[in-house]
Amino acid sequence: MEQKRKRLFILLFGVLLILLAVYFGIQARNKSEEKKKEAKAEAETIYVTDIEDLKEIKYNVGNGDFNLKKEGGTWYAAKDKDFPLAQSYPKQMAETFSKLKAKRALEGGDSLEDYGLKDPVYTVVLTDKQGKETTLYYGNVTGDDYYITVDNTGKVYTVNNTSISDLQNKLEDMAQLDTYPNIGSGNLKKEVITQNGSSTTYDSKNDDDSKNIAAVAGGLGAVKLGAAADYSVADKDLSKFGLDETARITVEATYTKDKKDEVLTLYIGSADGKGNRYVMMNDSRIVYLISEDICNNILY
């Protein structure tokens, strides 16, 4: 009986090994077939551009002229180098246009005018690290695609209309706004308001300030950074917003984050006449628009 069990065990184990070998063999074959399909697809892919290191992107797709440049690995707006450009936008543009895929290359004798390329709708100029320019011209729409040609080659391709989707943002849409902290009555420890050389302090350690702390915490917690009046204000222009040192109100809020004390500094300026006040935070150069009601609560 014991011998029969051993033989059965060996037989079953042998069958298991065979099944495993078959399984891994199928897996290996599937991977090989998948790689072949990918290689074939890549070989059949038509690229309109092949730019190794894109350093500059100039374009106009109906929102005005844009010029983005890269320096030391960082992209910036050429017209305003201090503008807080969110890097995700130019990086996505560079990824798209460095190797722009075409859906198909057109063959035949049609003229550029037939595709709307004699007077292009959009123009995109790409410059690599050597200073070589590649110009893309967008013509008529065909379904979900655009007709496109490159430089003066006369070759016409179709590319997906999503290729210009990242170019349709206004500059302010591409701003990297500051990160505003989470502040409430539960973590606000102290607020110091300084104006015209005098200061008012609300301290959570002072029982008499409990109502005041709750009020200013409500104001601080309601701040949402969004609309801005200036994204890279110069010192000489601070007075236009009532944010120069002689006119602004300084608010220093001490709060806890991850059991550590942090300090938020807000500079509150004049009103814009539309129900908002101009506000800056910490060492940022962005002038935000915050509602007067919220500002009044902060300055309770």
UniProtKB/TrEMBL annotation:
Taxonomic superkingdom: Bacteria
Stretches assigned to the DUF4340 domain: 75-209
InterPro entries the record matches: DUF4340
Protein name per its UniProtKB record: Uncharacterized protein DUF4340
